[in-house]
Amino acid sequence: MGEVSLRRVEKLFGDVTAVAAFDLDVRNGEFLALVGPSGCGKTTTLRMIAGLERVSAGEVWIAGQNVTGLRARDRDIAMVFQNYALYPHMSVRDNVGFALRMQGLDRAAQDEKIAHAAGIMGLGALLDRLPRELSGGQRQRVAVCRAIVRDPAVFLFDEPLSNLDAQLRVSARAEIRNLQSDLGVTTVYVTHDQVEAMSMADRIVVMHEGRVQQVADPITLYERPANTFVAAFIGSPAMNLKEAQSNGAGYRLGAAHLASPVPGAARIGVRPEHLIPGEGGDLTVAGDVRLVETLGGETLVHLNDGETVWQARLPGHPRLAQGERLSVGAQAEHLHFFDGTGARLGGAHAA
Amino acid sequence: MTLTRPWAVVAHTLCIAACLAILVPMLLVLGTSFKPYNEIFSPYPWPQNPTLSNYVAILTDADFLTYLWNSAGTTFFRVVGQLVFSVITAYAFARYEFRFREPLFFVVLGAMMIPPQLTMIPNYILIANLGWFDTWTGIIVPNLVMPLGIFLLRQHMLAFPKELFDAAEIDGAGSLKQLWLVLLPNLRPALGALTIVIFIEAWNEYFWPLLISESLASETLQIGLRKFLNEETGDDFGRLMAGVVLVSLPSLAVFFAFQRQVLETFVSSGLKG
What we know:
By secondary structure, chain A is of the alpha+beta class. Chain A is built from eight helices and 20 strands. In chain A, the strands form three sheets. In chain A, strands 11, 12, 13, 14, 15, 16, 17, 18, 19 and 20 form a ten-stranded antiparallel beta sheet that branches. Chain A has a six-stranded mixed beta sheet with strand order 6-7-8-3-9-10, sandwiched between helices.
């Protein structure tokens, strides 16, 4: 069916390596997200899967077939673009039906498929409109509709929600995820928004500077980041990552002390929600409240221990004034240890 | 930017003066074309006894109809040819990476800067050697490719969103279908503007047909009108002006037809998908 495999795929632009030695297997029916900051190579990777970009080395396989030398139109894929790429001069019906027309389907068969896909996306009433007569959300649905009408082996999404407002993005997220699991089509989804990736994907590939940093399901990624880049990139607000200075009995992190069982750590991290008020933890941070951000159900507190600033996510609405003294602590099992190269060390939660 | 009142007055005065400089000769031509023979040199710009006799005479003149046929035919092929060559050449320059693309485009730009008077003689010799002297082919072929059209369309194509080509490629459209079904429908304003320019240039062309035409086989209207200026039988200004008016009409028609489309497309478009 729709497995996608990348085998040592590389992309060079002149002397610049955009994507380096990329190995990946996407299972049939899986929803895989490629996530990373701008310029990390995620869109280039997606375009190489699509056949819009040639690979400099390596092979791309789709549905058990080596498609490295095939053109995009021969790969049985459908793609949704960031700016939707709807043909401005065609009605919604013609946009959705364009691929069917290219396949040489007769008009009746086209109409039937268009009506079916439009029904799924709730676009039945808009079929005769032009793209410019649609709202951003509607255009996005047309773009998705154009992808599903062809019944392809693989869906490719290139940041399809980044032009929508925040509220619409949340509902579109759920909609795409539901649609994908209903249709069971293998999906590769590119986004720079880690929340989008975490909430939608079965597995996530975190990329940085053209290299894969970690491939894992969202929970593993969150709880056992493979290196400091993943640790800092995944999670919002970001993990507290502090330089660790070994002092014989343990480590100094800012002004805090940690009696640690893990030797050789250069940086140690703790997620904001794992810092809880009180002094009983294995790591205790005492400092002055510098800023209090109310997030709704919880509160983000910036705590200055005299040397560095920590972020703690506290439940509810604790009454804290700026400058107030506060102690928070974390259990050893919630600490993440990284060596001098940034790679994860053993220790709590790490195997 | 808004002008202060005194400057606005100056600017409007200049504009009106420029309009008059263009309109007055045209009105004189129009007026003269309706004058009977004995009023041609009267001091009034308008005929005292308007007549259609000049128009009737010219439209029943078999030579005039031949000139019209020659003009219409050569212009048609020049417009179609230039549009086709401009579109496909600009598409290649805008869309594909190939060796020597930049130097070649530079050559195209360079060709735009060579005055036609420079290439006239070599072209003339070439056409004569090819046996195309005094033929439609001789008028059409040297004018089939126009650097300005290539340049203009290339710029528009470069501004066209690349994702639409990508989307069409994924949807299964090959290069020519992408050009025909996706790109060209969205280039209507540019094609409209280019058609106006090419048509007017081809229709009004004087110098080249003057060089290589010598008979009714290929003489165009612009050349044919000269026969009303005759040293032996006297200048027939009435018919000449009627001819000038008739010859101007197609240019005006094309201009208004395509200008409206150009404006409409500009107003209602926006390529944002």
